[in-house]
Amino acid sequence: MAEVKKIKKSQNYLQLSGVLLETNLKLEEGVKGQAWSNKDGKMKDLTCDVIKKKDFKNPSLLLECSPKDEDGNIIGTYQIGVDFNGIGFGIGEKQFDRETDKIVDNDNFKGVMTVLNNYVTRKDAKDGEEPTRVFIKSGFLSPNEYANKEGEFKSYLPTITTYNVTSSGVPENDICEGSISGIIRAIKEEMFNDEETGRLKIEFYFFDGKGETYPVELTVEKDLADDFKDLYETGTSCKVYYDILTRQIGAKTVESSNGGFGRREKHTVSGYTVNEYSVFKGEEPFEEENEYFIDKADMKKAMQSREITIEQKIKDAKDKADKPKTTKSGGLGNKASKLSETKVEEDDDDLMPF
73 lies in which domain range? Predict the structure, then answer.
């Protein structure tokens, strides 16, 4: 059996600062739930107040960031969504200390309550009231994937996640950038209407603390495209720095109706916005002695493990959909690792090395 090497967790770090536009949070009191006790090795009942999302599909917070260039000119204005870590299942006021089996305060809950009670959003600001400027010091990209009951696996652009947000020490100039290490799986020319735009689309994979790998699409603007291809190729492990931008999809000017009131045409657009992670800098490719270097053979194993995980998520989703609603499944997850039993075929495919 091939030896399975756990690849080191990627460097994955970003910062955001700007105006708080709106929140997507609500407080529910007296929620009954369960938490795992290491002491007894079982789930324990727990009742406490919980902060949840109002709309599960939308991010927890929406920030407006207007970064400036070295001359002080605004580069662009972007509305960027941010999720609190764990908010999908709610953040409880109390939690079990898994070692002592005692109920303790949850510091994350206190931080989010500060946002709810003390921060002013632009959406809710009253006349003459300034919305709160906020700073996310240590955000990161986290996977946004799931399998539905129809057996379809959905993988979207990673979401921006944080453990906390503060209104103290907010930089004077807005920030929306990050850095990430991993490995390049593909470098492609961006196409629009069957023509090359001059930009690059990079299929990049990063790793979490469990050794699981996930994709993120990076973009490279025209002025850096040649330099990027000169420095990197498929199969290169490296660290890159990116700007967090937003791009309008399906933009369409809505015609204003005749008559009525007003002195100009309205410019409301339809469609939606998506994040873009636009590379503006990159370090030299990692050599083998670098702790974040990823060998192609190890990456192939990681990709095979990912396929097994995806298949298991699809199976779990189908099984859950087929079970009566009164049926409860035991525990969390039932995936057994098959990686050590998987043979990795060696080849010379330079276009897709893993």
Answer: 12-253+266-322+332-341
